[in-house]
Recover the amino acids of this structure.
């Protein structure tokens, strides 16, 4: 009986965890990034680069996903946002 209860709790816990979206933040080559992976992923990916910015772009962990990208994530697309390693015209960094 104990083994059955443990197995059931393990199954329920892993199912609940699988339903949560996952968001990773980091920095690569001096550029900040954010990756949002929905629990109902369709194996599609959207890569979003911001446009010109005077200030460096960062992705604070306490900020929600940019509203237009929330709709894509709700449809199952993983979303990657990336800044550049420096602000202003970053033509050299854009093509890498």
């Amino acid at each position: 009986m104990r083994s059955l209860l443990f197995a059931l709790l393990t199954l329920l816990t892993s199912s609940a965890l699988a339903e949560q979206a996952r968001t990773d933040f980091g920095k690569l080559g001096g550029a900040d990034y954010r990756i949002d992976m929905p629990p109902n992923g369709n194996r599609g990916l959207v890569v979003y680069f911001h446009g010109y910015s005077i200030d460096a772009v960062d992705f604070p962990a306490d900020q929600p996903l940019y509203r237009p990208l929330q709709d894509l994530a709700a449809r199952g697309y993983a979303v990657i946002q990336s800044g550049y390693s420096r602000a202003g015209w970053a033509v050299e960094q854009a093509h890498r």
Q: What stands out?
A: Residues 21-94 form one domain. Confidence is low (pLDDT under 50) at residues 1-18. Strands lie at 22-28, 31-37, 45-49, 78-82. Residues 4 and 10 are 10 Å apart (CA to CA).
